[in-house]
Amino acid sequence: MSFTVTAEPGTDVWRKPPSIDVFNAPTHNHSKGPMSTLLSGNLSFTAPYNTQYDQVGLLFTIAKPSAAKPQWIKAGIEFYNDLPRLSVVCCESWADWSVADVGPDAAPKIQAGKQGVTIAFEKVVSKNSGGVSLWIYYVDGETRTPLREVGWFFAEDGEVDVSAFAARDKKGTEPLVASFWGFDVKWEQE
Predict the structure, then answer these.
(1) How far is CA 5 from CA 46, 109, 158, 164, 177, in A?
(2) I need a labelling partner for 178 at 20 to 30 A (CA). Which of 56, 83, 115, 146 fits?
(3) What are phi and psi of 108, to 5 degrees?
C-alpha cells in the first residue's frame, strides 16, 4: 500500500528548552498498541527536499502513565545544511538529535526525490545484560546500518502509535509532499 503525506510550511515535531514544544506535523497512522508488544517494522519513502529542516520518516508517539507529556521518536531524512541527512530525534523529556550522511552518491538522488530511503526498527534483547532496546536502522539494499539504540524505550510500559510523518519549516514557500510505501509493523500476539 502506498500513500502520501502533505506537510504545510510551519510544521514540525520538536521540543527544546526552555519553551519550544511543537507537535503539529501531519501523520499517517499504521497501528497502535502496548509498547511491550512492539517487535519490528520498516517504512520506505521519498520527497523533494529543498528547505532547511524538511523531514520525512517514521514517528513513534509514546504515552506512558508516568510521563507528563507524550514522548516521541522520529527517524528518517532531514534536510540540513543543503543535504539530506539520516536523522533520529528522541524525546523523553526534551529532544536530542543525531544526523549522519547518506553518502555522496545517494545524496543528490535522495534530495531530488528520485531515490527512496528505508528506515527499519526492531526490539532487541541484549545477550549480555538482558536489557531491551529499540534499535533504528537505515536499510540500503541488503545492508542495515545501525543509527540509534534507544535504551529507555521499553523501560516502562505504555502505548505507542507508529506513524509516517512529514514536516516543513515555516521558511518553505509551498507544501512538502512525501510518498510512502512498504509500511510494515509487527506486534507480539497477546
Answers:
(1) 11, 20, 27, 8, 6
(2) 146
(3) -65, -35
Q: For the CA atoms of 77, 79, 85, 86, what is the dihedral angle to 10 degrees?
A: -20
Please give the pLDDT value at position 154.
94
Is 65 inside any structural domain? yes
Asked whether residue 42 is domain-assigned, the answer is: yes
Environment class of 124 (CB within 10 Å of its CB; exposed 0-12, middle 13-18, buried 19+)? middle
The secondary structure of residue 142, as a DSSP letter, is T
Contact 58, 88 (CB under 8 A): no
Residues in the chain with pLDDT < 50? none
Q: What is the CATH number of the domain that holds 57?
A: 2.60.120.200
pTM: 0.95
Task: Identify the pLDDT of residue 93.
Answer: 92
Give the burial class of 176: count Cβ atoms within 10 A of its Cβ; 0-12 exposed, 13-18 middle, 19 or more buried.
buried
Burial of residue 43 (CB within 10 Å: 0-12, 13-18, 19+) is buried
What's the rounded Cα separation, in Å, for the pair 153 and 37? 12
- In the chain, the number of structural domains is 1
Q: What is the pLDDT of residue 190?
A: 55
